[in-house]
Amino acid sequence: MTKTGNEDSIRVAVSAVTLTLRRESEEESPHIVLPLVRRTREPHLGDWALPGGWLDAQEGLEEAASRTLAETTGLAPSYLEQLYAFGAVDRSPTRTISVVYWALLPSDAVDRQIAAYRAAGHAPENVQWFEVADLPPLAFDHAQIIHYALWRLRNKVGYSRVAHGFLPPEFTLAELRDAYEAILQRRLDPANFRRQVEASGTLIPTDRFRTGSHRPARLYRYNTDVELADRGPLAPEETRTP
Amino acid sequence: MTKTGNEDSIRVAVSAVTLTLRRESEEESPHIVLPLVRRTREPHLGDWALPGGWLDAQEGLEEAASRTLAETTGLAPSYLEQLYAFGAVDRSPTRTISVVYWALLPSDAVDRQIAAYRAAGHAPENVQWFEVADLPPLAFDHAQIIHYALWRLRNKVGYSRVAHGFLPPEFTLAELRDAYEAILQRRLDPANFRRQVEASGTLIPTDRFRTGSHRPARLYRYNTDVELADRGPLAPEETRTP
DNA sequence: TCAAAAGTGTTTAAAGTACACCCATGA
DNA sequence: TCATGGGTGTACTTTAAACACTTTTGA
Predict the structure, then answer these.
(1) Is residue A6 over pLDDT 50?
(2) pLDDT tens profile A49-83
């Protein structure tokens, strides 16, 4: 077993792929968007990168991902899960291990958090939101990372209720279906979709209705007895005693 | 964004949960076993730990996992996948990020590799194999890690052909079923199991038969057109250009 | 009253489960 | 010849998919 290597020159960074839904107009279906940060120094100066930063010695990985995301964008996601640890030798000129997280956020929470962030005096002029289908030139291996995050999301939506991470506490079945359709990139039958989610026991009907145009739709909320996503024997917070 | 932290005092380690099947006798069904290393120094002196070591600055993560596993046990797995990056502050007295991999190996390959390892002059006296159902006192958070690896294996066996990682190139359907039963911890109907794997298109029948007792069983081999496990948009080797 | 989305019912296909039964071999 | 696992057939249950149909609202 190698006890000493050049491990002193290896640095640990964290990044986050933070996804939310944005609806351009009332008519069309929503798209998945994420915030990127324009790099202000080499390497990859001018390219766009995932929000992140260096891991601090006094904090856990998930903690660091939350902190750096909040520092650069002002966002605090409702769902955060580790994606992968990237550590290819040539992924950066300085040897860097990036532990990447992926996060989901309801669009109304994004608006509120960004407003609060600006009100607190921050002007994130190097942060911009992009549709995942139309990404700018990306720094490092971040394009690969984003595609992997989207793959995980598409995968996980099939066997857990992660899609709810995109929605506010109360929502209609059409809004939930819109989220699924944006994730899976295909249309779902409204009738069958209704029956499936009703049978899954993850939803609780409320007495309230969304009264836009046409027939009012019942509002539902999460059944908090059901986990947002199955993470197996790992606790939601990894900072628990071994 | 925090540009400088105490990142110099953070070290990166790699470990591997290496699983194989061991059949105690011809009669009973096989069990999942893994190699552990007895710690010869503090912390956790005398406890058992996953094989691993420090990440070298010149190697990728997967590369380091293979190297340290080979150095401590002489094993070279047929399947290797990243499990998780563990980084809780209190998981070790010195701040350590452990990038853990999980690996599968056919039992006949284990025997061959260990024989070759001993023939090359190595005497791994601190390495011992344990059934996953009967683990000794483990160092750090390694018990949690092993249970997570087993959960991933059980999960993945449902939608990919990872179970083949336990088997030699040619095998009978009963041997494949034994692997599934050991992983899932429940009996499977032989008739339905046969039809399911035949329909999946992952197996190619050979002209050879296993002629033990009773009626000879046809030998099958992998259809190499099908991936061993779905890893999404990530290449099998993470060391590819961004 | 009409367009459009909410919500219900029904039919068909596919996939999974249970289990009876025949086949081929070594002892 | 018989016990045993290899291998096939079939009926039944559950799940998913397709789509016709009714209900309720705003304009």
Answers:
(1) no
(2) 999 999 999 999 999 999 999 999 999 999 999 99
**pLDDT confidence of residue B7:** 43
Give the nucleotide at minimum CA-to-C1' distance from A220.
C6
Contact B166/B179 with Cβ under 8 angstroms? Answer: yes
The reply to whether B114 and B167 lie within a common domain is no
Residues B170 and B142 in one domain: no
Of A55, A68, A234, the CB nearest to B10: A55
Asked if residue A173 and residue A140 are part of one domain, the reply reads: no
Residues of B in contact with A48 (CB under 8 A): none
Q: Which candidate, A205, A204, A203, A202, places its Cα nearest to that of A230?
A: A202
Q: How many CB atoms lie within 10 A of CB A216?
A: 12
Residue B186 within any structural domain of the chain: yes
Side chain identity at residue A202, one-letter code: T
Kindly state whether B41 is in contact with chain A, defined as any CB-CB distance less than 8 angstroms: no
Question: Do residues A32 and A19 make contact, with C-beta atoms less than 8 angstroms apart?
Answer: yes
For chain A, list the strands marked E by DSSP. Answer: 11-22, 31-38, 48-49, 52-54, 79-86, 96-104, 127-131, 170-172, 203-210, 217-222
Give the residue ranges with Cβ < 7 A from strand C: A 172-174, 190-192, 194, 209, 213-218; B 189, 191-192, 195-196, 211, 213-216
Chain B residues whose beta carbon lies within 8 Å of the beta carbon of residue A240: 88
Enumerate the β-bridge partners of residue B205. B220
Kindly determine whether residue B12 and residue A9, on different chains, have CB atoms separated by under 8 Å.
Answer: no
Q: Do A88 and B8 touch (CB under 8 A)?
A: no
Please write the tens of the pLDDT for every residue from A28-55. Answer: 889 999 999 999 999 999 999 999 999 9
Q: Which domain holds residue B218?
A: 159-230
Inform me whether the pLDDT recorded for B1 exceeds 80: no
Averaged confidence pLDDT in chain B: 92
CATH number of the domain within which A150 lies? 3.90.79.10
Q: Is the pLDDT of residue B235 over 80?
A: no
Is residue B234 over pLDDT 80? yes
Cα separation, A46 vs B169, whole angstroms: 50
